[in-house]
Amino acid sequence: MSVKNNAETDELYNSPFMRACRREPAPYTPVWLMRQAGRYMREYREVRDRVSFLELCKTPDLAAEVTVTAVERLGVDAAIIFADILLIIEPMGIQLEFEKGEGPVIHNPVRSALDVERLQEVESVESLDFVMEAIHRTRRALRPNIPLIGFGGAPFTLASYIIEGGGSRNYVHTKTLMYTDSGAWHSMMSLIARGLAKYLNAQVEAGAQAVQLFDSWVGCLSTDDYREYVLPHTRAVIESVKTGTPVIHFGTGTAALLELMSEAGGDVIGLDWRVDLGEAWQRLGDVAVMGNFDPVSLFANQDFISAQAKRILDRAGGRAGHIFNLGHGILPETPVDNVIALVEAVHEMSQR
Ligand code: CP3
To answer: CB of 325 closer than 6 A to ligand 1?
Structure first.
């Protein structure tokens, strides 16, 4: 390997985002934003005018293009590969569609033990090669100080889509299966966890520096339910990730679950905006933290945005291991200029 490659590896390893994942001091607080490549951005909408969402995910050149464009336009400190948490359910035998303006729709949801038995084991993630190819191309196109994050849905959030057939308000089908047939539930969760282990490690192999597990909807569970029905499976996925690759463990509505999420694992715990970052970090102990900025604040004026960002930075108090992010993804109508202003404000206010 050439000297240049070694220098590039060092630069990645020592980038502010990677240092923060390891709870090492950084020259400023690294910032990136969930859903940073999305409909709020004109460049993204122009690509989407030509291809459907799934086609975009499955075309490595286009996925790489929207990933890199978002990083360059916003000046953020990390990239997240353009893909979707639901891609992995296709090789499980689930038929996935994204209907215009309606989000994901699954035509053969799993509702019974018999349906669970029909789920296919993900023996190989070859059918998801387009994601690995997109990672490969993105890594080559990114500057060497910008880490690339791979990701997957956590077992509970994926199970909720597979069972409900789409988004849900009360998770009635999901909880009913969990409460009435715990054998089928655990069997489904461990099948998902085994698939995720292969998928996340393939993304690392392809060139991702860190991975994130999105447990977006786990906040609908009680602490007892989380401990019994979710924790062992999420833990199995996190433990499977190649040593040395930071794992970000993210959820929303998780104020009651933070200690248990941390027990399940993760080098970095993602927080939504409902908790006080200082208090949450104290409860979590020896981990890095990410998130906490309310994505709806981005609709206000830039003075307000800057003041909100300062409150979060003050609560982090300059401690090593803070990654600035939103508490959930950027919403489609968000003004791009406000997003850029947020990134600039975080960089400016956190210079050390
Ligand atoms: O953060 C990024 O920039 C990377 C890309 C990314 C997408 N989805 C692109 C996307 C990531 C990390 C995801 C994860 C994802 N997907 C989650 C977890 C994160 C979260 O928000 O909680 C979930 C629950 C999904 C499932 C999903 N995908 C839903 C519910 C929807 C519809 C919602 C919507 O905004 O329309 C999607 C579609 C989706 N995934 C879009 C994008 C940019 C919008 C698709 C479009 O272009 O129309």
So the answer is: no
DSSP string, 131-178: HHHHHHHHHHHS-TT--EEEEEE-HHHHHHHHHHSS--SS-HHHHHHH
Please name the residues in contact with 120: beta carbons below 8 A apart, sequence gap of 6 or more: 91, 92, 93
> Does residue 104 line the site of ligand 1, with CB under 6 A?
yes
Active-site choice (22, 39, 111, 227):
39
Question: What is the reported pLDDT for 6?
Answer: 86
Q: Cβ distance 81 to 67 under 8 Å?
A: yes
What atom in ligand 1 is closest to the CA of residue 38? 43
Q: Which of 48, 227, 274, 315 is catalytic?
A: 48
Tell me if 192 CB under 6 Å of ligand 1: no
What are the backbone angles phi and psi of residue 29, rounded to the nearest 5°?
Answer: -75, 120
Q: Are 119 and 180 in contact (CB under 8 A)?
A: no
Between CA 89 and CA 108 the distance in angstroms is 11
State whether the beta carbon of 84 lies less than 6 angstroms from ligand 1.
yes
pTM confidence score: 0.97
Query: From CA 227, how far away is CA 282, in angstroms rounded?
Result: 21
Q: Ligand 1 pocket: which of 84, 149, 196, 333 to mutate (most atoms <8 Å of CB)?
A: 84
**Annotated catalytic residue 39:** yes
3-state DSSP assignment of residue 212:
strand
Beta bridge partner(s), residue 96: 106
Sequence-distant (6+) residues with CB within 8 A of 119 are: 92, 93, 94, 110, 162, 188, 191
Q: Tell me: the pLDDT tens digits for 5-15?
A: 788 889 999 99
35 is catalytic: yes
Coil, strand or helix at 226 = helix
